Amino acid sequence: MLNKKRKVLIAAQHLFIEKGFTDTSVQDIIDEAKISKGTFYNYFSSKNECVIEILENAREETALKRRELLVYQDISDQRILIEQISIRMKIYRDRNLMPIFVAIFQAQDSGLSEFIKKNHYEEIKWLAERLVDVFGKQTKKVSLDCAVLMLGMIQQIQHPWTLKSKQISMEELVGFIMRRVESMIDSMIDTNDSLIDPHRFENFYEDVEITKKHVLDQLKSFKQQYLDELKENELQHIEFILEELSLKKPRKYILEAVIHSFSDTFKKTSYHKQLTEVTANVWKLIDETY
Amino acid sequence: MLNKKRKVLIAAQHLFIEKGFTDTSVQDIIDEAKISKGTFYNYFSSKNECVIEILENAREETALKRRELLVYQDISDQRILIEQISIRMKIYRDRNLMPIFVAIFQAQDSGLSEFIKKNHYEEIKWLAERLVDVFGKQTKKVSLDCAVLMLGMIQQIQHPWTLKSKQISMEELVGFIMRRVESMIDSMIDTNDSLIDPHRFENFYEDVEITKKHVLDQLKSFKQQYLDELKENELQHIEFILEELSLKKPRKYILEAVIHSFSDTFKKTSYHKQLTEVTANVWKLIDETY
DNA sequence: ATGAAATTATACTAATGGTCTAAAAGGTGA
DNA sequence: TCACCTTTTAGACCATTAGTATAATTTCAT
Lengths: 290, 290
Hints:
- The structure is a homodimer of 290-residue chains.
- Chain A is an all-alpha fold.
- Chain A is 75% helix and 0% strand.
- Chain A has 15 helices and no strands.
- The termini of chain A are far apart.
- Mean pLDDT of chain A is 82; it is low at 204-208.
- Chain A binds a DNA duplex (30 and 30 nucleotides) through α3.
């Protein structure tokens, strides 16, 4: 019943809007959706998983609307960019998602913070590209800086206490910031005054630090999730990797060998996709650390 | 033993730096400081109170160093402003306080969020004034906007994922932002393009919304704190106000009458100062809501 | 109708922030 | 030294929370 899952998501969304993420307990969601705890944890492995889906919905909706806005339009039209930016701000504002976004910067929950980092990174890249669309190719070498600064300004000036009084539309607000960007963009290009190295940024997401704890957690939860379906030898593989990784100095080459055969073993299973993600991270961890 | 309190604060600070605020439990602090739970709650009425003191220390230290930097110096020297701004960023970075600051924007804990809002507000006001020092009087009408935007840019560009690679000093970073502000300030003045109404902002802090819950908490904790010293009739006053406020529709005029006599009663007590704060808030709440 | 999957109710665990208490330790003035 | 007062301690205790576990029941496709 995807219906039921939707029901849960709607209930959760509703509560998050009303009381905020941290002040909404799983129990609250369960009560609101009139389902049982078991059902909730059948759909989501944690409260964070649940909020991730809500964030993901918001992201998709934003992307869709943004795309629609550009159909048959001039990509260099500044007003459209302003609208595109505003859309995201409005969606996040209306759904009370900002606090989650901000608050999680610090949280070290692997899944959620990973998701949010990626999201933010994509937003910066998107905005940088659009700025080039609007302000011309010569903008390229400073577009990432501008994107980052712009998002910072928007976020800050949106705080209720700075505005509060004036009733001002999101478009006006973004427009205001856009004029600021416009007036600083030339001097940046002229003086070649840029902080962010585009090349470095390009590969940024791949370079997110992968911690041992993160990988261990991922692997453990994978094991947990498919405990029943796993065959004996597959389980042994996982167990071994867990043990070896937990050592102070995992033996790199042994690990590599085991993971190699391990990945092969799973090629045709239903959980193959999820597994490749995990193993990819194990690989990266090994490469980076040892 | 103020010594012991210091010990606790140092332990807490240490743990916050290492694991962050949310991931440090009161128990952790207690263990680290080698004191008992009772002692901790003797000094701080809550975990938040504890972190507030740490934040306050950081604030004071920042203010002090900033003042020192300006002694016998030209207030219009841009480099000094850059250093002054950097000081705060460095202190907050080193003590891992940023996450607290950011995360609490959403928290509705009265004390902590109140403190942080006030702090942030003071920072904006300070920076706006200093920008006028540096860029001249004609900057005044856009200085608040610039201050807000500047803080937003700094905060955003500090994120580890945007920089990460380059080793860059805080001063360079702030200098970079300062050049951006410099290049947008003129057009703002010329076009009179400003969002923040200075007058409104001036009174901002007084206008922070006062919730019923907040006032109730404040009153309860006051009662708790002075339970032994309070006389019977004083206690009755407090009890009554608590009860009445808890009703769906408190009777405004009765409350006013009681609070009036209540305030008089305490005129000469040792806790008079704290009480006036509480009653002032009760007044405001009544005025605003009923 | 049957058997598998989804769902329920509910009990449970572990961690957390915070309260409370009775006893011990420490310091101070007489 | 004694009496008295404050601080400190250890630990029991409470409520809330995320998340697990399980046995019973409902749903639903074949």
